[in-house]
Design a protein that fits this description.
The complex is a heterodimer of chains A (about 325) and B (about 575).
Chain A: H1 2-29, H2 34-41, H3 47-57, H4 63-75, H5 89-124, H6 129-143, H7 146-160, H8 175-209, H9 212-219, H10 224-247, H11 250-253, H12 256-261, H13 267-276, H14 280-308
Helix pairs in contact in A: 1-14, 5-6, 5-8, 5-14, 6-8, 7-8, 8-10, 9-10, 10-14, 13-14
Chain B: H1 7-21, E1 32-37, H2 52-58, E2 66-68, E3 74-76, E4 90-94, E5 106-113, H3 128-138, H4 148-153, E6 154-159, E7 164-169, H5 187-196, H6 201-204, H7 206-209, E8 221-227, E9 231-236, E10 249-254, H8 258-267, E11 272-273, H9 281-291, E12 295-310, H10 315-318, H11 320-328, H12 332-340, H13 369-378, E13 383-385, E14 388-390, E15 398-402, H14 408-423, E16 427-430, H15 435-443, E17 451-456, H16 465-468, H17 491-502, H18 506-523, E18 526-539, E19 542-543, E20 562-563
Parallel strand pairs in B: 1-10, 1-11, 15-16, 15-17
Antiparallel strand pairs in B: 2-3, 4-5, 5-7, 6-7, 8-9, 9-10, 12-17, 12-18, 13-14, 19-20
Helix pairs in contact in B: 3-5, 11-13, 17-18
The chains are: A mainly alpha (about 325), B alpha+beta (about 575).
Chain lengths: ~325, ~575
C-alpha cells in the first residue's frame, strides 16, 4: 500500500511538472501580452515605454527562460504577483479556494445527500410513479441551463419574495448573515448537479439489484433495508465514486457561471478572469491547482475502491 | 422490493430553515449608498494602469489637480486657479540646453497652488513634497508608472512654498494648463516604500498592500474595506476640506453579469447602477420600459464614439469612392432610432457635436442607396452576379467585417449593416473574435483585412493624433505603437494635427479643427456610426448625479449628490 501511494504521488508530481510547462507555453502563445493591453488603452504610450514595461515584467525574454525563472521561484513558494489585482498570487488564490471549497463542498454534499437515497429509492421501484417522478426531476435538473436557473432563483427569492440577497458575499463578521449569501448559489449548483448523480446512482443500483448476491441475501431472509444498505449501496457506489472523482476537476470550472451571476468570489471566476485579463501568474497557479485537485481526487477514488470492494488491493 | 425512507424530508428541512431565517433581509440604511458596477479596479494606485473602474472609485477618495467638468471646461480641483498666459501664471520660455521638447526650443512654466486645506486622511497636509515625490516616482524608468511621457515632459519643478510650485513643461500646447493625469501620491507613506526598491514599487505600493490606510486619501471619502474582485467600502474622510457629502458610507459592489446587476437593483441589494460601468443600452431601454416608474434612467451621450475602421492596405478600400459608398449605403439614422430609440445619436465625424470645435457644416452621408450605387459603378464595381457586385476582372466586392464576439449590441448592429450592404451589392463576411483576441492582436497589429467595429473614448477637444497621424500607424518596427489602425496617410492632416496642438488662439484653432473634420469626412478612413450613451439607473430619491459624457467620472462630484424623500 505504501509503495503504491509513493508511486502514485511521484507520478502526480511528474504530471504537475509537465502540466506547468504545457500551461505556461499555452498561455504564452495566446495573442497579446499585458503590455499590449496597456498600449491599446493608452494612446500616449511610446514604443520605448512599452519596451521598458516589457522588460520590467520580464516579457522581453524567451518563453522557456521565463518558465525556468517562474519554476525556480515557484519551488520556493513564490508564485509572483497578480497583474489584475497587484497582489501576491497566493493572497488572491487561497481565499477564493476557500470560498470555492465552501460553495462547491456544500452543494456537492447536498447533491449526494439527495441523489444517493433518491437514486436507490427509484431503482428499488423501477417504472413506478415515484421512479418516473424522480427521473423527471433528474432530467429537469440536467436540462435546465445554469445561468437561466440562477437568474430565476434570484428573481423568485431576491426580487419577488425579498428573502435572500441577490448576490455578493458576507463580510465574515456574522455567520448566519453570511450564510444567506450562500443559499441561492448552493441551491443553483445543487439543482444542476443532483440530476446527473441520481441517474448514475439509479443505474448502478439497478445493476447491483440484478446480481446473484442480492437474490441470495433475500433468500437468507434479510430485509429490504438490510440488503440495500449492506449489499446494493456498497457495490453501486464503485462506479459512482469514479464519476464523482472526475467531477472534482469541475470544482474549479463548473461553478464559473454561478459565481459570475451571484458575484461570488471563487476559483472558477478567478481562473477565467486571469486568462482573459492576461494575468499569467494567477492563471498558471490556478490551473495547476485544478490539475492537482483532479489528481488527488482520482487517487482518493482509487483508495476508496479498496474500501468499498475488499477484493481490490494495491501493491 | 420496497424501502421506506424519510431521509429526503430530513435533508430538505435545514434548507427551508435557512430560507426562513433569511426572510428578514435588511433594507439599506438611509446613510448608506450601494452602487453596482460591472468591473473591479485592476489596481488602486492612481498612476498605474488607467481603468474606468479605478477612476470611478478613486474619484471619491481623491481629486485630480485639474479636470474637465460636466460642461467640458477645464477646472481646478486640487489647485486653486488654472495657470494662464493672460494672468501671468503661465509663462512661455526657452528650453534649457539638453531638453529636446517638441523641437522648437520653447516650453512653458506653469504655476499651481494646492488647496490650502487639502490634507491626507491621516492628518498630514498635502504639500509640494508630495508633488516632488509624484514627479520622482512617475519618471523613474523601472517603477512601472504607466504614463511616463507626462512626467518626462516636465523637465523641472520649482518649489515656491509648501503649497505653491512651478512646473516647467518642455512644450506648449493649447491645453497647457491641464495636468489631469498628474495624480498626487502621499510622500510620507509612499516615498520610503519607493526608495527602498524602486523597481519593486509597483508591487509594494500601499495603495494595493494597505488600501485602507487613511493617509492615502484626501477626498470626501476613504477606503475602509477592499476585497479584490468583490467590493470596496468607503466611509467619510474626516479631513476633507470641501462640501460634506450626504452619505456616511458608500459600498461599491462588483457584479460582472449585467443581468444579475439588474436583479440586484430590483432586489434592493444595490441602490443604483453606475453609467460608467453598468447596463448595456438595450438592457437599460428594456429596464426603463418595465421599471421606469420606480427609477430614473439617464442616458448621457458623450465622447464614446462607435465607429468602423477601414483597412486602407486593402486594394478595394484604397478607393475613396468605395469608402464613401459604404457610408451612403447604410441607414445610420434608422439604426439609431429603431435599435437605440434615438438615445445614441448618429456620428458624422470623430468630433462630438457637443464639443466646441465641432464643425456643423461638415460633409454628412445620409442614407442614399442611389448615390452609393453611382459611386460603386464609378469605381468599377459594375457587374452584378447573384446580387454581388464584381469588377471587370471578375473579382467580387467582398469584405471581411470584424468586431468583438459576444457583444450583443455590436453584433446586432453588424447584422443590420451586413444586410444593408448586401442590398448595395457588397458581400460582407462576418468574422468576430473574443475581445481579448480582437483588441489584443487583430486590431492592435492591424491584422483585420476589411472592417473593424469598436469604440473610442476621449476627452474634450482631443486631438486625434494617435488615430489619424501617419506617424501613428502601428508596425512591428515601432512595437505596434500608435492607434492609426486604418493606415491613413495624409500630409495635410499631419500638418493640421501638429498645428492644432501648438495653436493657443481659439478662433484660429477652431478653423484648423474645421479643416481637419472636412478632410476626415471627405477621405472617410473611418466610418462614424453613433455616439454611445452610458445609461445611469438611479433611484428616484437620489438627486444631483450629473454624468459628464467624457472620461471624468460622475463620482468626482459626489458631494453634490443629495437624498430627497428616501
Amino acid at each position: 500500500m505504501l509503495s503504491y501511494l509513493t508511486r502514485r504521488l511521484t507520478e502526480s508530481l511528474l504530471v504537475l511538472a509537465v502540466m506547468s510547462l504545457v500551461i505556461y507555453a499555452l498561455i504564452g502563445l495566446m495573442p497579446g501580452d499585458p503590455i499590449d493591453i496597456m498600449v491599446f488603452s493608452d494612446p500616449e504610450m511610446t514604443p520605448a515605454e512599452a519596451e521598458r514595461l516589457r522588460a520590467i515584467y520580464g516579457l522581453d525574454r524567451p518563453i522557456f527562460e521565463r518558465y525556468l525563472a517562474w519554476l525556480g521561484n515557484a519551488l520556493t513558494g513564490d508564485f509572483g504577483y497578480s497583474r489584475l489585482y497587484n497582489q501576491p498570487t497566493l493572497d488572491i488564490l487561497l481565499p477564493r479556494l476557500g470560498n470555492t471549497v465552501i460553495l462547491m463542498g456544500l452543494s456537492f454534499l447536498l447533491a449526494l445527500a439527495i441523489a444517493l437515497p433518491a437514486g436507490i429509492y427509484a431503482a428499488t421501484r423501477p417504472q413506478s410513479p415515484v421512479d418516473h417522478a424522480i427521473n423527471l426531476l433528474a432530467f429537469a435538473g440536467i436540462s435546465v441551463p445554469p445561468f437561466w436557473l440562477a437568474i430565476l432563483l434570484i428573481i423568485l427569492f431576491a426580487v419577488t419574495l425579498g428573502w435572500l440577497p441577490a448576490g455578493g458575499m458576507g463580510d465574515g463578521r456574522d455567520f448566519w448573515g453570511d450564510l444567506r449569501y450562500l443559499v441561492l448559489p448552493v441551491m443553483a449548483l445543487t439543482i444542476a448537479t443532483v440530476g446527473g448523480v441520481i441517474r448514475f446512482m439509479r443505474a448502478a443500483a439497478l445493476e447491483a439489484l440484478r446480481q446473484d448476491y442480492v437474490r441470495t441475501a433475500a433468500a437468507k431472509g434479510l430485509t429490504g433495508r438490510q440488503i440495500v444498505i449492506g449489499h446494493v449501496l456498497r457495490n453501486a457506489l464503485i462506479p459512482v465514486v469514479t464519476i464523482l472523482a472526475l467531477q472534482m476537476g469541475n470544482l474549479f470550472s463548473g461553478a464559473l457561471i454561478t459565481e459570475q451571476i451571484f458575484a461570488y468570489l471563487g476559483m472558477g471566476k478567478t481562473i477565467y478572469d486571469s486568462v482573459i485579463g492576461n494575468d499569467y501568474n494567477v492563471a498558471l497557479a490556478g490551473l495547476l491547482l485544478a490539475t492537482l485537485t483532479t489528481l488527488l481526487a482520482n487517487l482518493l477514488a482509487d483508495l476508496a475502491y479498496a474500501w468499498l470492494d475488499p477484493r481490490i488491493s494495491y501493491r | 422490493m420496497a424501502v421506506k425512507g424519510t431521509s429526503m424530508r430530513k435533508l430538505i428541512l435545514p434548507f427551508i430553515l435557512a430560507l426562513a431565517g433569511a426572510v428578514a433581509w435588511p433594507a439599506s440604511a438611509a446613510e448608506e449608498l450601494r452602487i453596482g458596477i460591472s468591473q473591479y479596479p485592476t489596481t488602486l494606485h492612481p498612476s498605474r494602469e488607467a481603468s474606468v473602474a479605478k477612476s470611478y472609485v478613486l474619484a471619491m477618495t481623491r481629486r485630480p489637480m485639474t479636470v474637465y467638468d460636466q460642461q467640458w471646461e477645464l477646472i481646478c480641483m486640487l489647485c486653486t486657479e488654472l495657470p494662464s498666459i493672460e494672468a501671468g501664471s503661465a509663462v512661455p520660455e526657452d528650453l534649457p540646453p539638453g531638453v529636446e521638447g517638441a523641437g522648437n526650443g520653447r516650453g512653458i512654466a506653469l504655476s499651481y497652488t494646492i488647496q490650502p486645506e487639502a490634507t491626507w486622511g491621516d492628518g498630514t497636509p498635502v504639500t509640494t513634497r508630495d508633488v516632488l515625490f509624484t514627479w520622482k516616482a512617475g519618471r523613474h524608468p523601472t517603477a512601472g508608472i504607466g504614463n511616463l511621457e507626462l512626467y518626462r515632459r516636465i523637465h523641472a519643478i520649482d518649489v515656491i512654498d509648501d503649497k505653491t510650485f512651478v512646473i516647467h513643461y518642455d512644450r506648449i500646447s493649447f491645453e497647457y494648463a491641464a495636468i489631469n493625469d498628474f495624480q498626487l501620491l502621499p510622500a510620507h507613506i509612499e516615498e520610503p516604500i519607493f526608495d527602498a526598491a524602486p523597481e519593486d514599487y509597483r508591487n509594494r505600493t500601499a495603495y494595493d498592500t494597505d488600501p485602507t490606510n487613511p493617509g492615502l486619501a484626501y477626498g470626501p471619502y476613504r477606503i475602509v474595506e477592499a476585497i479584490p474582485g468583490s467590493r470596496v467600502i468607503l466611509e467619510r474622510n474626516e479631513t476633507w476640506w470641501g462640501k460634506p457629502p450626504v452619505f456616511d458610507r458608500i459600498t461599491i459592489l462588483t457584479i460582472e453579469q449585467t443581468t444579475a446587476l439588474e436583479a440586484n437593483l430590483l432586489s434592493g441589494n444595490i441602490d443604483m447602477i453606475a453609467g460608467e460601468l453598468g447596463l448595456t443600452l438595450d438592457q437599460a431601454l428594456a429596464f426603463e420600459k418595465r421599471h421606469g416608474g420606480d427609477y430614473d434612467v439617464v442616458y448621457e451621450p458623450g465622447l464614446l464614439y462607435e465607429h468602423i475602421d477601414l483597412m486602407l492596405d486593402n486594394p478595394i478600400l484604397q478607393d475613396r469612392r468605395v469608402r464613401q459608398a459604404l457610408v451612403y449605403a447604410i441607414d445610420r439614422a434608422a439604426i439609431s432610432e429603431r435599435l437605440f430609440e434615438g438615445r445614441q445619436p448618429v456620428a458624422h465625424s470623430g468630433v462630438s457635436p457637443l464639443d466646441w470645435v465641432y464643425y456643423k457644416d461638415v460633409k454628412t452621408y445620409p442614407f442614399n442607396p442611389e448615390k452609393a450605387a453611382e459611386l460603386l459603378d464609378a469605381a468599377g464595381w459594375t457587374e452584378r452576379r447573384g446580387g454581388i457586385r464584381h469588377n471587370a476582372a471578375g473579382k467580387p466586392l467582398r469584405l471581411e467585417f470584424m468586431t468583438t464576439a459576444g457583444s450583443r449590441v455590436r453584433e446586432l448592429v453588424q447584422q443590420v449593416l451586413q444586410s444593408q450592404w448586401k442590398q448595395a451589392g457588397i458581400d460582407i463576411r462576418v468574422r468576430n473574435e473574443p475581445a481579448r483576441v480582437f483588441f489584443g492582436q487583430t486590431v492592435h497589429e492591424r491584422r483585420f483585412t476589411g472592417l473593424a467595429m469598436f469604440a473610442w473614448g476621449s476627452s474634450p477637444e482631443n486631438v486625434p493624433r494617435s488615430t489619424l497621424h501617419s506617424e501613428e500607424i502601428p508596425t512591428e518596427a515601432n512595437g505596434w505603437s500608435g492607434q492609426n489602425y486604418t493606415g491613413f496617410k495624409n500630409a495635410e492632416m499631419d500638418q493640421l494635427i501638429e498645428a492644432i496642438n501648438l495653436e493657443l488662439d481659439r478662433p484660429k484653432r477652431e478653423k484648423l479643427w474645421h479643416r481637419l473634420q472636412q478632410i476626415s469626412a471627405e477621405e472617410m478612413p473611418v466610418i462614424p456610426l453613433y455616439w454611445r450613451a452610458n445609461p445611469y439607473v438611479l433611484p428616484k430619491w437620489l438627486k444631483g448625479v450629473r454624468p459628464t459624457g467624457q472620461m471624468a467620472s460622475s463620482s468626482l462630484w459626489i458631494e453634490d449628490w443629495t437624498v430627497e424623500g428616501r
